[in-house]
Amino acid sequence: MKISIIGAGNVGGLTAMRLAGEGMGEIFLVDIAKGLAGAKSLDLEDASALLKYNYKIKGTDDINEIKDSDIIVITAGLTRKPGMSRLDLLNKNAQIIKDICLNIKRLAPESILIMVANPLDLMTRLALKVTGFKPDKVIGMGATLDAARFANLISKELNIPPGDIETIVIGCHGEGMLPLPGFTKIKGIALDEFLKEQNIQNLIQKTIGRGAEIVSLLGSGSASFAPSAAVTEIIRAIIKNEKRILGVSAYLNGEYGIKDVCIGVPCRLGKGGVQQVVELDLSKQEKEAFLKSANDLKEQYKNITI
Ligand code: NAI
């Protein structure tokens, strides 16, 4: 299994470390910045003697090294600065993603692509267009992270281990995301058995603002520990054909009555990528909010001018 990570910055480097630690294939780390990917791969190689893992990793600034990859993660692109929204990155990252995707199409036409760059759903849709890949092979990582954030915040509020909490977040990976309390269970028990409506709403708002909170504290750069863990979760599900249901940005072609948009939805992931888009039985209010999020994404996509 050959896994290439394009963009050896914070998320890319940590993803490489996690994948190596789990022995998930041969890893190629690629970055346009001369020396960066090479340096990180040497550093990771050195760690293998201490961690007692025998993994293969190579760092390069030559995009041709992604040839015939099975899985490609795109963690290249600009990050937002304090006060910026993910959308503010639109055209700069679109140019980067377009160039990378043309190379992916040329060098690794059979690969499964996992998008991380922001604005996530729009970059996923762009990757689908530029590569011409089948939709089940183009996956955006956003809702997995958002659900983990929601679960973490609930766990802190209730002093319950996060692993006992199941959450689902749908919609765009941005201000319009929809953490779904009605689909959130603690060991099978509904969330509203534990928390009052106002507390739940507060946690939803905190979840939506979590990325910005981290960006603002960092001053430069964005979250990377949880995002790299979420990417690893998705790759594990695909490589091991786990058929797990995880929230990812996937192309909708009529599901939820929506067409031609990539947006966060629960999907069954396994061999080949997205095996099924799971359609939740949403309430009227949830449906309306989800539709709005999808329509907003369609409008925003039109602003890509590259
Ligand atoms: P970073 O700045 O640490 O790393 C980005 C790397 O991409 C840099 O090393 C840069 O040299 C490289 N790069 C730029 N253009 C390239 C190209 N054409 N080919 C190869 N490499 C190229 O950024 P970080 O924190 O790793 O974030 C990367 C992207 O992921 C950003 O767009 C960020 O907004 C997004 N992100 C998305 C998350 C999500 O939940 N979907 C979570 C965290 C970050």
Question: What's the helix and strand layout?
Answer:
Layout: E1 2-6, H1 10-21, E2 26-30, H2 36-51, E3 57-60, E4 71-74, H3 90-107, E5 112-115, H4 120-131, E6 138-140, H5 143-158, E7 165-166, E8 169-170, E9 178-179, E10 185-186, E11 189-190, H6 197-218, H7 225-239, E12 244-253, E13 259-270, E14 273-277, H8 284-301
Parallel strand pairs: 1-2, 1-4, 2-3, 4-5, 5-6
Antiparallel strand pairs: 7-10, 8-9, 10-11, 12-13, 13-14
Sum this structure up briefly.
With 306 residues, the protein is of the alpha/beta class. Helix content is 42%, strand content 20%. Helix 1 packs across helix 7 (225-239), helix 5 packs across helix 6 and helix 5 packs across helix 7 (225-239).
The secondary-structure element order is EHEHEEHEHEHEEEEEHHEEEH
Largest sheet features: 6 strands, parallel
Distinct small-molecule ligands in the complex: 1,4-dihydronicotinamide adenine dinucleotide
Proportion of beta-strand residues: 15-25%
Unreliable segments (pLDDT under 50, ≥5 consecutive)? none
Strand order of the largest sheet: 3-2-1-4-5-6
Question: Can you give a write-up of this model?
Answer:
With 306 residues, this protein is of the alpha/beta class. 42% of the residues lie in helices and 20% in strands. It contains eight helices and 14 strands. It has helices at residues 10-21, 36-51, 90-107, 120-131, 143-158, 197-218, 225-239, 284-301, and strands at residues 2-6, 26-30, 57-60, 71-74, 112-115, 138-140, 165-166, 169-170, 178-179, 185-186, 189-190, 244-253, 259-270, 273-277. Helix 2 links the parallel strand 2 (26-30) and strand 3 (57-60). It is globular, with a radius of gyration of 19 Å. 46% of the residues are buried. The model has no long low-confidence stretch (mean pLDDT 96). It binds 1,4-dihydronicotinamide adenine dinucleotide. Residues 6-12, 30-33, 36, 75-80, 93, 96, 99-100, 116-118, 120, 141-142, 145, 173, 221-224, 227 line the site of 1,4-dihydronicotinamide adenine dinucleotide.
